[in-house]
Amino acid sequence: MPLRIGASVLFVATLVVSWVLGGYVGYRQVEQESLEESFRYRQLVANELNRYLPIPELMAEHPVMEQALLNPDDSELILAANQEMQRMATIVGSSDVYLMNAGGLTIAANNYQERDSFVGRRFDFRPYFSEAMATGDSAVYFALGTTSGIRGLYFSHPVRAASGDLVGVVAVKVLVHELESQWHRPAAKRDAEMVVLDRAGISFLSSRDDWLYRDFSGGHNGALPLESRRRYPDRELRPMRIEQQTRPWGLSEQSERIRLMTPKGPKDYLNTETPLPRLDWTLRVMVSTDPVLVSRVGFMLAGTALFFGVLLAWLYVRERSRREAELA
After folding, report:
1. What are phi and psi of 257, to 5 degrees?
2. Residue 119 belongs to domain spanning
């Protein structure tokens, strides 16, 4: 009887240790996958920024920009500025390129011949304008277009006159399709979901359409900042139902376990957050924790096999020693 009790206690202990070790290994693998996806997308965003950031600055140095801003009534200069906008939009593959005066009024744009042209529209309320004018340096901003309603990255740079005064801002809008088109995951990582959040915790890039323009902050209680309402006009910005879980043993401070309440029921994820370069954005990669259960079951099966292997070997040696003692 003591043997059976001892064997049972050891067997239970083996299962517990196997469960814990399986969870540790499983969560570390999930975290590694999450960090790899974070690094890959961070590099993608950095490459896109490096590609477009110099464009407005180069355009701001073009002589026709300063001349058009200083002589807004000169139709020939304005036409030259419009044509330059068209040329640059074609070269860099951007959707919109436009020139605003110091008051935020657009005086030239690549779409000046279209019905919904930016010419005559005022964008002084946009942070990419006010920040460029306030700092005298380049600015980057993400928002829905007030005219088109299409998501875009806005790159801007102020135009300086020969006197050194800031006389306007050049802005370039790039559609986010470029980023999303490269957001393809290998089949092995199909359980990974990603969202890019702004400073208020609103998602404006997402691997799932139903997670786009959602509030991931969990702290607004329906009262969103005015900036968010302006940035995403006519969007509900409904909050996501997120429950914080305890952090699994062995994981870094960068990772946490969360539970999302979805229409199909609760779903557990390992969440990793990474700040994106030169922006007030946060990349959140959420990898399903389902593989952790598979890892735990595998460790428990291996632990069970090891336990019974050792037990049978011990019983064999014990029985053999008993028989040798009887024959002696």
Report:
1. -100, 130
2. 53-176
Indicate the SS3 state at residue 277.
coil
User: If DSSP codes are grouped into helix, strand and coil, which group holds residue 286?
Assistant: strand
Tokens standing for 101?
Answer: 């005066």
Residue corresponding to tokens 């139709």: 75
Q: Phi first, then psi: what are they for 300, rounded to 5°?
A: -70, -40
Place of tokens 């393809």: 184
Q: Please report the sign of the dihedral spanned by the C-alpha atoms of residue 224, residue 227, residue 232, residue 233.
A: positive
- Tell me the pLDDT of the chain (328 aa) as tens digits: 567 777 778 888 888 888 888 888 888 888 888 888 888 888 877 887 788 888 899 999 999 999 999 999 999 999 999 999 999 888 887 778 999 999 999 999 999 888 888 899 999 988 899 999 999 998 888 877 776 677 788 899 999 988 889 999 999 988 876 666 665 554 445 577 888 888 888 888 887 888 888 888 876 555 666 777 777 777 778 888 888 888 777 777 778 888 888 778 888 888 888 887 667 788 888 888 888 888 888 888 888 888 788 878 877 777 777 777 776 6
- Residues 64, 151 within the same domain: yes
Q: Same domain, yes or no, for 169 and 123?
A: yes
Domain end point (choices 149, 176, 203):
176
* Helix 63-70 × helix 75-92 angle, to 10°: 140
Residue 298 forms part of a structural domain:
no
CATH of the domain at 128: 3.30.450.20
The pair of structure tokens assigned to 123 is 């964008």
At 300 the three-state DSSP class reads helix
* Torsion (CA) 198, 204, 207, 211 in degrees, nearest 10: 100
Length of the chain: 328
Residue 300 covered by a domain: no
